Predict the structure.
Amino acid sequence: VQLQAFGGGLVQAGDSLRLSCAASGRTFSRYAMGWFRQAPGKEREFVAAISWSGAGTYYKDSVKGRFTISRDNAKNTVYLQMNSLKPEDTAVYYCAASEYGSSSYPADFGSWGQGTQVTVSS
C-alpha cells in the first residue's frame, strides 16, 4: 500500500491541526494504521495507532486526551486530529501501515508515507 500524508503546517501553541493520510490500493481495510513523528536529532517515535476496523485505538501517553486517530475505510484515509498543540509536538509526522495489527513499534509497519511537517510556536 502506498501512503501520502498531508495537513501539516505552522501553528501556535493551543491551536489544532488535522493530518490526513491517503492510501492507494484496495486492501486498505486490512491494515492497522499508525502515526509516528520524528523531531530533529531524535529518533522516530510512536504517536497513535488504530486497528483495521477502527475499534481499537492506542496513543502515546503525552498525546492522550489531545490527539485522536480515526479512519474511513471507504475513503482509504486515516486521520490524526491534534488539539491543544504544544511546542514539543513539533516534528515531521509520518503515517504507516501494518499487516500485523496495531503496534507502537516502527519495525511492525511495512509501508510509510513521506511525512508532513508540523511546527508549533510558543
